[in-house]
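Deliverable D2.4 — example input (structure tokens):
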């Protein structure tokens, strides 16, 4: 018979914070390209000062960032994104695991 063991609370917090940091850092280039496309679309919709098309899509925006800044250009703003999403992911996953453990013991 297999038994389930609960991780200590500090392990849950550490693992969930690490997962949030890693996921937000790894997906940062995609988020940066998405944001640039959204800004471009907003300027075009409002007739902003430069409503010309700079990016034709996600791949084009990523290539533009890489050509102009290399790897560093792809991860521009990644630290802010990590600092934003790490606590949010940590709180969400820790609350989920704590509630799951609590209700499993009640049943």
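Example output (designed residues):
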């Amino acid at each position: 018979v297999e038994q389930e063991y609960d991780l200590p609370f500090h392990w849950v917090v550490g693992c969930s914070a690490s997962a949030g940091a890693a996921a937000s850092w790894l997906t940062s280039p995609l988020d940066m390209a998405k944001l640039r496309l959204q800004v471009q679309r907003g300027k075009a919709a409002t007739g902003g000062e430069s409503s010309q098309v700079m990016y034709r899509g996600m791949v084009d925006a990523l290539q533009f960032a890489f050509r102009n800044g290399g790897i560093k250009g792809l991860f521009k703003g990644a630290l802010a994104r990590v600092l934003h999403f790490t606590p949010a992911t940590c709180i969400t996953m820790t609350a989920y695991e704590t509630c799951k453990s609590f209700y499993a013991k009640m049943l």
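The mean pLDDT is 91.
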